[in-house]
């Protein structure tokens, strides 16, 4: 069994891709580094105070850093509750080589899949982590990268939880084995269009898979049954959220949360940029809490 389950101009949007504008220089912050591919790569690391039960790679949005993703998603507290070590890596040029071909690292041939895989191997050894409990989440560019990791390194990642990101239409996903997926996307996302098509992000334009179609891709790859849609409680924020779940082979479940009226944001997190720029943030659920619970009930 592969998995076990217990239960407003274009310029403005480009600057905001994946939620934050790029800082002029890299922010100094305490962190760690690993040399990979001839490049010094950095990351922020959080280790829970108690027993370690898994590893989460939490990937930042375009134009941002691992430290900022740590602050935005408040995932350290979630990790402590579940016993997860969390690494927040930094992308080259505040971006990821996520397969769309638009970012600087993509165009330069940076091997981010290799870098993150090497980081996982190092941390699994360093903290004696069960290699069957390795996960990835991320926002926008980080979500594209999380999807790519699942496509190429299904042998490493048991589950992913991408928020506001799919894959480029030019990228073929062919995982070696099933990966459980919990994806989230807002229908009013002004940066990564919910219905797919052209998008303009950090580094240039690309064409992306629609969010519902990306969920279908994972359902087909995982041998899932027909999905069931359940509305989440109304938070009174002017948006409605619906959770669409599928039972799948080897318990590699696929869950897709559609936020009707939701923007290019992390549900449950503080609103960082103006609503006019990135859209609204729902309070109906917390994407970090949901990802933590999902990871805790899925392993290889």
Automatic annotation (TrEMBL):
Superkingdom of source: Bacteria
Entries under Pfam families matching the protein: Esterase_PHB
InterPro entries per record: AB_hydrolase_fold, Esterase_phb, Plant_Biomass_Hydrol_Est
Keyword ATP-binding: no
Coiled coil location: none
Keywords noted in UniProt: Hydrolase, Signal
Signal peptide per UniProt: 1-26
Molecular function terms, GO-annotated: hydrolase activity
Gene Ontology terms: cellular component: extracellular region
Protein's recorded name: Poly(3-hydroxybutyrate) depolymerase
Organism per entry: Mycolicibacterium tokaiense
Lineage of source species: Bacteria, Bacillati, Actinomycetota, Actinomycetes, Mycobacteriales
């Amino acid at each position: 069994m592969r998995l076990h389950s217990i239960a407003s101009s274009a310029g403005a949007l480009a600057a905001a891709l994946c939620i934050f504008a790029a800082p002029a220089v890299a922010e100094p912050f305490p962190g760690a580094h690993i040399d990979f591919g001839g490049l010094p790569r950095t990351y922020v690391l959080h280790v829970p105070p108690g027993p370690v039960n898994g590893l989460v790679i939490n990937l930042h949005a375009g134009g941002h850093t691992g430290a900022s993703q740590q602050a935005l998603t408040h995932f350290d507290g979630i990790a402590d509750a579940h016993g997860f070590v969390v690494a927040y890596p930094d992308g080259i040029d505040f971006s990821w080589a996520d397969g769309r071909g638009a970012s600087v690292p993509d165009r330069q041939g940076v091997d981010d899949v290799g870098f993150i895989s090497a980081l996982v191997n190092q941390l699994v050894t360093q903290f004696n982590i069960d290699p069957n409990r390795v996960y990835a989440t991320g926002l926008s560019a980080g979500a594209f990268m999380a999807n790519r990791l699942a496509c190429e390194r299904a042998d490493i990642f048991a589950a992913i939880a991408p928020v506001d990101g799919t894959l480029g239409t030019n990228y073929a996903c062919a995982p070696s084995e099933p990966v459980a997926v919990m994806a989230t996307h807002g229908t009013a996302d002004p940066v990564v269009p919910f219905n797919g098509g052209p998008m303009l992000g950090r580094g240039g334009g690309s064409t992306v898979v629609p969010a519902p179609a990306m969920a279908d891709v994972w359902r087909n790859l995982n041998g899932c049954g027909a999905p069931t849609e359940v509305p989440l409680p109304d938070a009174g924020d002017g948006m409605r959220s619906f959770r669409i779940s599928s039972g799948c082979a080897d318990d590699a479940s696929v869950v897709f949360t559609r936020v009707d009226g939701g923007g290019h944001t992390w549900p449950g997190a503080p609103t960082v940029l103006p609503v006019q720029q990135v859209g609204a943030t729902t309070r109906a659920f917390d994407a970090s809490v949901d990802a933590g619970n999902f990871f805790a009930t899925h392993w290889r």
